[in-house]
Amino acid sequence: MPMLIRKLNSTQADFAEQLKTLLAYEAEDDTRIENAVTEILVDVKKRGDAAVLEYTQRFDRVPAHSMAQLELPASELKAAFDGLSTEQRTALEAAAARVRSYHEKQKQDSWQYTEADGTVLGQKITPLDRVGIYVPGGKAAYPSSVLMNAMPAKVAGVQEIIMVVPTPDGVKNPLVLAAAHIAGVTRVFTIGGAQAVGALAYGTATVPPVDKIVGPGNAYVAAAKRRVFGLVGIDMIAGPSEILIICDAHTNPDWIAMDLFSQAEHDEMAQAILLCPDVAFIEAVEASIAKQLPTMPRAETIRTSLADRGALIQVRDLDEACEIANNIAAEHLEISTQNATELAAKIRHAGAMFLGPYSSESLGDYCAGPNHVLPTMRTARFSSPLGVYDFQKRSSIIHVSPAGAQTLGKVAATLAYGEGLQAHAQSAEWRLKN
Amino acid sequence: MPMLIRKLNSTQADFAEQLKTLLAYEAEDDTRIENAVTEILVDVKKRGDAAVLEYTQRFDRVPAHSMAQLELPASELKAAFDGLSTEQRTALEAAAARVRSYHEKQKQDSWQYTEADGTVLGQKITPLDRVGIYVPGGKAAYPSSVLMNAMPAKVAGVQEIIMVVPTPDGVKNPLVLAAAHIAGVTRVFTIGGAQAVGALAYGTATVPPVDKIVGPGNAYVAAAKRRVFGLVGIDMIAGPSEILIICDAHTNPDWIAMDLFSQAEHDEMAQAILLCPDVAFIEAVEASIAKQLPTMPRAETIRTSLADRGALIQVRDLDEACEIANNIAAEHLEISTQNATELAAKIRHAGAMFLGPYSSESLGDYCAGPNHVLPTMRTARFSSPLGVYDFQKRSSIIHVSPAGAQTLGKVAATLAYGEGLQAHAQSAEWRLKN
């Protein structure tokens, strides 16, 4: 029988090297994709609607004759919502309410202060005017992602949220449309791929140009987002999903095995790792994996993900587990221990932390409140979950009083002359009163 | 005599088109630069110190035999500081103190809250571990930029700040070294270009790998930063500097002309624009430009910048000026009017706002307090000044209580089944107590 999941031990001499190999992931730098995306973007920039329509006909096999046919009216979103089962509608509304409530705490306010000489300094916070939300179509169409991308923008005060979602062969996902209704999306176009990113970035006669594009997508969408970065803002470029679990052996091993599955079922490249000081518990989790795997509808994806990229790692103790976790800087970190809060204080790098045995990562994916769009591939070392702050920006406020200009002017002039910037110096000196 | 600066009028039928042409700027997409940068990065990744040393010998003509020779000891930074004139030292210290004080107000704190069922949600804020600061060498070596890039990192709590600054022909700038001393930079290497960006991103035997690289640079540096984005964080890709002035004709026209110069003297591609409802004042500014220009050491740069990219624009009124300013989303916006605070309330998009006749942009460049690293090329629509927030990141905290897992688990399971993610559903259901 082939290996279910590799087992490592942090006391092994070559553990650091093994861990590095385990974590190694380079997104393929596919020249063919880059070239195709460049061509599509240039074409959309030049021909607008006509180009978007043609690519949509070709790639999504949608026989529309005009861009107008590719826009979904608000009534269709509402109808999708009304058509849900009571259970689904209630669940979606509960999730939306909790996500909204958490994100409202992230909202930042403008501030300013006045100095003794009357000079006022501050920071003005404003929402972006108009943003684009990319929602994948087909098998990875997730209503939860609609909520997680649109609600922070809504809470930030963004006036127009333009959603794009491809509908291959014209098949729409009612849950996705219902989520757009709940989240308060302004307009929805059934377009996708690089052509949708181009339409949002450059604008067409039908699709208004946005200031920022967020949301996950395939390799073409990622390449297109990277390409239009600078003209518009983008969120992160997402890699495969990751879960890292620290467990003290007091959680039911079936729970831990299933938590590992819940990441592995996303994608064969997803990564699920357990850190535990107890060898008997690691064996119990391994046995549970073997027992539960055959019952999973996505067993094959899980099997490949665990075999190729998963690991059960025996560590010396929970402190060492925290050190390793800081090195891995995982997207999702479950600390399934009795003293979870204490251990969490030692964690510097993680997208989201799930503390205690009851905080399964799936609760965070849907309805705990915090965002499920999180930094992957060790980028939690320098980046953050998607949030309201991604849809607000700051402007510095500098209101120098006549008195303030006297002291600041001399400092500025001295430094400006030192840099050889005489107009800077002179501009400050004009405000000096002799 | 050739045109000093173009004059436009917002009532002209083709004004929108003219403004668009005026603002148009596309950074050249130079394949030669891209290829050179790719080659250098690959080489630095593979050969580390040896590659960095060779490129530094070749491009900067620095005859060092080892990387150790390219590191400046702390004592050399201190000596540079001690060697400054009293006036320069005092000015630099005053600027540093004000920049520190303003940025301390940007620092964000962790927060959390407990729900009725005992579930705790929150956001943990942590500084980045180690950052790299790129400081240009040669003619554009600005000590003020050292302060503006390093101090927010310091305030954020970053433990290690690694500065790189090329020293072509071995020439060091004492003001830059003194600024590094004041700002509390951890280590300084006299390397630059794509090789310095590569060393910071990948790490070498001598240069430690960083989590984020900030700071301005030439086209090679910009291309290299864009290329390593994802492996490390980067700040914005900066375009030419811009100033937009709204004036009600009550400020001395000599001041306004000099404020326009202070941007134009940076670079022939810099952009300086005046919006004013008063035609007589516009003529007075034009006359002042003609009068003051010959006295400027950088007259040729200013002349080219104003002629190629500058404009004096007559607007209908100050409200229209604000609308145009929101469209331009300038890096620096001076509102040199009597009712500046009132007008500032109408501005949604600007990197920094300088209010009232005494707030010359140059005061903000050096010592007012707010950062001078600001979004250019209309990116103030979606991005912010460099700040403490660029050196902090967030981790979501989710600590679900046993009771919370009952309500959240049902919602999550319903939505997970709707998305076809059975392991997600099962993982939530494991926590349900029957």
TrEMBL record, chains A, B:
<keyword id="KW-0560">Oxidoreductase</keyword>
<dbReference type="Pfam" id="PF00815">
    <property type="entry name" value="Histidinol_dh"/>
</dbReference>
<feature type="binding site">
    <location>
        <position position="263"/>
    </location>
    <ligand>
        <name>Zn(2+)</name>
    </ligand>
</feature>
<feature type="binding site">
    <location>
        <position position="266"/>
    </location>
    <ligand>
        <name>substrate</name>
    </ligand>
</feature>
<dbReference type="GO" id="GO:0008270">
    <property type="term" value="F:zinc ion binding"/>
</dbReference>
<dbReference type="InterPro" id="IPR016161">
    <property type="entry name" value="Ald_DH/histidinol_DH"/>
</dbReference>
<feature type="binding site">
    <location>
        <position position="424"/>
    </location>
    <ligand>
        <name>substrate</name>
    </ligand>
</feature>
<feature type="binding site">
    <location>
        <position position="266"/>
    </location>
    <ligand>
        <name>Zn(2+)</name>
    </ligand>
</feature>
<feature type="binding site">
    <location>
        <position position="241"/>
    </location>
    <ligand>
        <name>substrate</name>
    </ligand>
</feature>
<feature type="binding site">
    <location>
        <position position="365"/>
    </location>
    <ligand>
        <name>substrate</name>
    </ligand>
</feature>
<dbReference type="GO" id="GO:0005829">
    <property type="term" value="C:cytosol"/>
</dbReference>
<comment type="similarity">
    <text>Belongs to the histidinol dehydrogenase family.</text>
</comment>
<feature type="binding site">
    <location>
        <position position="419"/>
    </location>
    <ligand>
        <name>substrate</name>
    </ligand>
</feature>
<feature type="binding site">
    <location>
        <position position="365"/>
    </location>
    <ligand>
        <name>Zn(2+)</name>
    </ligand>
</feature>
<feature type="active site" description="Proton acceptor">
    <location>
        <position position="331"/>
    </location>
</feature>
<dbReference type="InterPro" id="IPR012131">
    <property type="entry name" value="Hstdl_DH"/>
</dbReference>
<keyword id="KW-0028">Amino-acid biosynthesis</keyword>
<keyword id="KW-0479">Metal-binding</keyword>
<dbReference type="GO" id="GO:0000105">
    <property type="term" value="P:L-histidine biosynthetic process"/>
</dbReference>
<comment type="function">
    <text>Catalyzes the sequential NAD-dependent oxidations of L-histidinol to L-histidinaldehyde and then to L-histidine.</text>
</comment>
<dbReference type="InterPro" id="IPR022695">
    <property type="entry name" value="Histidinol_DH_monofunct"/>
</dbReference>
<dbReference type="GO" id="GO:0004399">
    <property type="term" value="F:histidinol dehydrogenase activity"/>
</dbReference>
<feature type="binding site">
    <location>
        <position position="424"/>
    </location>
    <ligand>
        <name>Zn(2+)</name>
    </ligand>
</feature>
<keyword id="KW-0862">Zinc</keyword>
<feature type="binding site">
    <location>
        <position position="134"/>
    </location>
    <ligand>
        <name>NAD(+)</name>
    </ligand>
</feature>
<feature type="active site" description="Proton acceptor">
    <location>
        <position position="332"/>
    </location>
</feature>
<feature type="binding site">
    <location>
        <position position="195"/>
    </location>
    <ligand>
        <name>NAD(+)</name>
    </ligand>
</feature>
<feature type="binding site">
    <location>
        <position position="332"/>
    </location>
    <ligand>
        <name>substrate</name>
    </ligand>
</feature>
<dbReference type="InterPro" id="IPR001692">
    <property type="entry name" value="Histidinol_DH_CS"/>
</dbReference>
<feature type="binding site">
    <location>
        <position position="218"/>
    </location>
    <ligand>
        <name>NAD(+)</name>
    </ligand>
</feature>
<feature type="binding site">
    <location>
        <position position="263"/>
    </location>
    <ligand>
        <name>substrate</name>
    </ligand>
</feature>
<comment type="pathway">
    <text>Amino-acid biosynthesis; L-histidine biosynthesis; L-histidine from 5-phospho-alpha-D-ribose 1-diphosphate: step 9/9.</text>
</comment>
<keyword id="KW-0368">Histidine biosynthesis</keyword>
<dbReference type="GO" id="GO:0051287">
    <property type="term" value="F:NAD binding"/>
</dbReference>
<keyword id="KW-0520">NAD</keyword>
<protein>
    <recommendedName>
        <fullName>Histidinol dehydrogenase</fullName>
        <ecNumber>1.1.1.23</ecNumber>
    </recommendedName>
</protein>
